[in-house]
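This part of the workshop introduces the protein records we will be handling. Getting from the letters to the tokens is the skill we practise here. The record below serves as our worked example for the rest of this section.

…
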Amino acid sequence: MTAGRDQLMCEVLPPAIEVMTAFGQSGDDPGFYWQAVQRVLADAHDGPPGADPVARLTFGLTALAGILLDDLSANSGRAPGQILADLHRRYLAV
């Protein structure tokens, strides 16, 4: 990774991890997750001028998903495309 990319990841991953941790801990209370999303977005409004909080959270969640996909691929021996195809069939196929 480059220094610029490392810096960006250090900025966008913590809020994404916080939101996904709340998702994992929310159980039957989606309000807990929603409060975490609102808190992260509110905190991001206090960030650098011109930074779009929603875009930054989206980028962070996408980066986190990519990291987790790579890790799952490495640990399962399945290609990322296969994992995504399986997820599509399981959750989106009607």
The chain is about 80% helix and 0% strand. The first helix runs from residue 3 to 25.
